[in-house]
Amino acid sequence: MPDKALLSEMNDRSREVFRLVVEGYLNTGAPVGSRTLTRDMTEKVSAATVRNVMQDLEYMGLLGSPHVSAGRIPTQTGLRMFVDGLLEVNMNGEDRDQIDKTFGEGRDDVNTLLDRVGSALSGVTRGASLVMTPKHEAPIKHIEFVSLSADKALVVLVFADGQVENRLFTPPAGQTPSSMREAANFVNAFAQGRTLSELSTVMQREVEARRNEIDRLAADMVASGIAVWENKGESTERLIVRGRGNLLTDSENAEDLDRIRVLFDDLERKRDIAEFLDLTEDGDGVRIFIGSENKLFSLSGSSLVVSPYMNADRKIIGAVGVIGPTRLNYGRIVPIVDYTAQLVGRVLSGQS
């Protein structure tokens, strides 16, 4: 995310040129030239002066030029700065009325209501809508962990009642797609009939059982001075073996050591799985994802504007959003999504 100090350091002329280029691009999708800008500037300046300012903004990484002789368009960094620092949001009465109408069509169950909300958002914004339903706590039928990037993963939860949930989370460091598949295979072996919280409890018991078994096997070696614990009880714990030659003449100790190695591998795997299950409970706040900032939509060059909705206890239970091109009309879309999320939260909380 660009430094907001960069925006404050820009003079009025640079800030106005930058704003006009971004707004022009968002309106037309086309590069904006210096001659066009001179007609819209509040200050009467020459096209050459405007070109110099645009070159400075390009050097700062805020504007780009698709062709040598073309005008400028905002870069992804420039779009982010515009959204964070210069965006003026405005929700008009017609948009508000259309969203309000969605919530005035009788009392339905949650899924029917959210289906209508998704259709209304898509219709009002002319974009694809995204609706994340309240988190489910029913018995799980199947679970999958999908790696999206080095620091982002998706968990797919299929519940026994047929509902499906997708949740984004940041996986523990060092995890690979194959390790996530192994985690899912392990969890699915005993997931059926258990809720997510029950699964977490089971995993913690498994971790504790492996920990106790390692302690029991290592106790004699530690007591006799053959081995010593380092960082015991922590995620970086190790059993350091001294006098390895003595183990060669003591088959029982050697067998125990091999067993401890196997148990350590199993303990680490179960710790990771327990952490996976805990992380799926996390939720994000209001975010605007632009282009490649959103790993789910970067290939199509799309943006996602999403806002969470909360229950009566101010706990995030879901989110609504709109997916569209990076040149979305953010000033119009952001307040629509935010207003819709507030209404969903109030309805689900039983408020007027």
Automatic annotation (TrEMBL):
Record bears the keyword Transcription regulation: yes
GO biological process: negative regulation of DNA-templated transcription
InterPro entries in alphabetical order: GAF-like_dom_sf, HrcA, HrcA_C, WH-like_DNA-bd_sf, WH_DNA-bd_sf, WHTH_transcript_rep_HrcA_IDD
Coiled coil: none
Gene Ontology molecular-function annotations: DNA binding
UniProt keyword terms in alphabetical order: Repressor, Stress response, Transcription, Transcription regulation
Pfam families: HrcA (PF01628)
Domain named Heat-inducible transcription repressor HrcA C-terminal: residues: 112-334
Protein role: Negative regulator of class I heat shock genes (grpE-dnaK-dnaJ and groELS operons). Prevents heat-shock induction of these operons.
HAMAP family in the record: HrcA
Assigned protein family: Belongs to the HrcA family.
This protein's name: Heat-inducible transcription repressor HrcA
Gene that specifies this protein: hrcA
